[in-house]
Amino acid sequence: MMTELAVTRTVPDEVTGPAVVLLHGFASSGAQDWPADRWARPLAAAGRETLVVDLPGHGASPRVDSAAEGTTSRVLEKLVAALQAVGADSVDVVGYSLGARLAWDLVAVSPIPVRRLVLGGLSPVEPFGAVDVAAARAAARGGDRPADQLTGMVLGMASAPGRDTESLLSLVEGLAREPFDPAAAPPGVPALLVGGADDPMSQGIDELAGHLPQGAVLRVPGDHLGALAGDEFQAAAVEFLR
Questions:
Q1: Where does the AB hydrolase-1 domain start and stop, copy by copy (predicted)?
Q2: pTM (whole model) above 0.90
């Protein structure tokens, strides 16, 4: 039986549109990327229910015990099950970084219709495919720090205080088995691609927009973390979801 992901739900007094699903980035959590004061409360004031999801291995959701549990398809299955469990019948989705990558693929596989997407900090290439997971695991268990810069960066994120390093590395390994391919199943719904002006990860969003029949691109101030925290991203997302 599939264990449900943790979902924080905020329901407005009067609902005026589909629920808004908020998907966070790698080595973060729903509460960290989507503070209620900045997201759930303003959306509730506009009549929108919010569903803030903790992805597998993050926040209050179950850990990832193997790479097989962390593949893209398995994560999407768990996400769909979580949305079905709360009774969502139609949704808008806002995703950032890893959350945006999952939101891109969610549209094609979800039995719950997705109306609109806001995708922030999304890279057109698969970053986890180049991670040396074996070296990262060895370092996490007391071995030498990985010589590869990307592997060292991912290990640093996965081993930050409060993180389950082994679980997150299993997720990285699983996601790398089914790399992000934006051409495979591009979402056919209206989508807003948002990238920080100083964020190297999202410099390819114009390329991504080329796969979308209804895609728009917006640059906002900030690097990868700064763009997410900035008022410009939040305001543009809320406006797009109207």
A1: 18-122
A2: yes
